[in-house]
Amino acid sequence: MNPGLYIHVPFCLRKCPYCDFYSESSLAQKKAYLEGVVREMDLVAKDLCVEAPFDTVYFGGGTPSLLKPSEVARLLEAARTRFSFGEDVEVTLEVNPGTVTPTTLAGFKVAGVTRLNIGVQSLDDGTLSFLGRLHSAGDATAALEAARECGFSNIGADLIYGVPGQDLAAVRADVAALLSHAPEHLSCYMLTLESGTPLYARHGNRDFSMPGDTEQGAFFGAVSDTLTENGYLHYEVSNFARGAGFVSRHNTKYWEMATTVGIGPSAHGFYTGGGAREHPVRRWNVAHLGTWLEHLARGERPVEGEEALDREAMMTEALYLGLRRMEGVDLGALSRRFSQDLGWVLSPVVKGFVDEGLMVADREAVRLTRRGFAVADGIVLRLLQAL
Ligand code: SF4
User: Fold this and answer.
1) pLDDT above 70 for 277
2) What is the pTM of this model?
3) Is 20 in the pocket of ligand 1 (CB under 6 A)?
4) Residue-wise pLDDT tens digits, 170-224
5) Mutational test site, ligand 1, from 15, 20, 131, 139, max ligand atoms within 8 Å of CB
6) Ligand 1 neighbourhood includes 134 CB (under 6 angstroms)
7) Cα separation, 351 vs 139, whole angstroms
8) Residue 5 falls in which region: left (phi positive, over 0), alpha (psi -120 to 50) or beta
9) Helices (DSSP H) in the chain: which residue ranges?
10) CA dist list (Å): 204 to 131, 191, 197, 215, 293
11) How far does the centroid of ligand 1 lie from the alpha carbon of residue 76, in Å?
12) CB within 8 A of 128, min separation 6: which ones?
């Protein structure tokens, strides 16, 4: 599989209380950051050993739409002159409603962005307010409409559900409102409480309660049913596409453990290596803009840590990532790759899940049912314990 390039844009106008991604709320160092990205590309390009050309670029964050179109164009040009790219490149930019106008969106298109991922999260003002988002439902609607009017034909939207105060009808209404914009892709996430965030602390103080397992399962089912009934492919636990042509090419690289180069503070990269390197390596950058810049000023790669994935770790990840996808895991291929008969090892546990209707299995492959998707993490854990 071709490699992909991820660029982390570490700026947000304000920190959302549930978010644990790295970002800074001041744009004062934006110019230094842009120069740093180009410098980091130089350093990465010197060491990089990939056989195929890149076919994706993903601007994630943070809030990449705080960059100007000319700045996005500059980073894309810098990437093109340092790495090899194929003809057909998916270039995704994450957009926060309220940070863009029809003019900036049109500018991103001219800059070379082919796909927008809009952080809608909800089209209900009460839900957005609970999430502490800066934008309103009106801002999100305006961004979705403007994106379409600018000619983007591949628009993704993020949705968060299971927000305290929501019932099943509210979740369904939010999905229906989003569907009226016919996005090509939807990423739907259940709200989770990340340790260390203000929302986590509020929950600890009993300010609100989270939906229980049964309610969460019902929400998940409602989201999946509504979207599949409307022609979307539920191709990964949290991801839906309006047909196979709109599956996220970049995210597929993570699920298939292809090489992804991560640039920017806190960015992660995964290097499958070629022949000479024994184990694939995951590498992550320092999660602090100032420190990241200091490393680059010294001519060093701003890497905070790395982990070589041995056979067991690769097998674990392949199982974990595969079961979260519609296709499931080809146990025959996995057994051959890791020289271990996984079908035989896992069959007693798999049988239990099949009997419960959570999994479908034949001699070669296992995949989760829609009900299984709802409890995917627990199933994967049980399988891993059996290995
Ligand atoms: S805008 Fe996105 S990245 Fe920034 S704080 Fe909010 S959730 Fe996190």
Assistant:
1) no
2) 0.93
3) no
4) 999 999 999 999 999 999 999 999 999 999 999 999 999 999 989 998 999 999 9
5) 15
6) no
7) 48
8) beta
9) 30-47, 69-82, 102-111, 125-130, 137-149, 168-179, 198-204, 213-229, 249-255, 289-297, 311-323, 331-338, 342-355, 370-374, 376-386
10) 16, 16, 11, 20, 36
11) 23
12) 121, 122, 135, 136, 137, 140
Our mutation pick for probing the ligand 1 site, out of 13, 23, 58, counting the most ligand atoms within 8 A of Cβ, is 23
Q: Is 12 in the pocket of ligand 1 (CB under 6 A)?
A: yes
Average pLDDT over residues 141-165: 97
Structural domains of the chain ordered from first start: 4-253 (3.20.20.70), 328-386 (no CATH)
Report how far ligand 1's centroid is from the alpha carbon of 170 (Å).
Answer: 23
Question: Which residue's C-alpha comes closest to atom 2 of ligand 1?
Answer: 62
Percent of the chain residues past pLDDT 70, beyond the cut: 98
Instruction: Answer whether residue 151 shows pLDDT above 80.
Output: yes
**pLDDT at residue 275, as a whole number:** 52
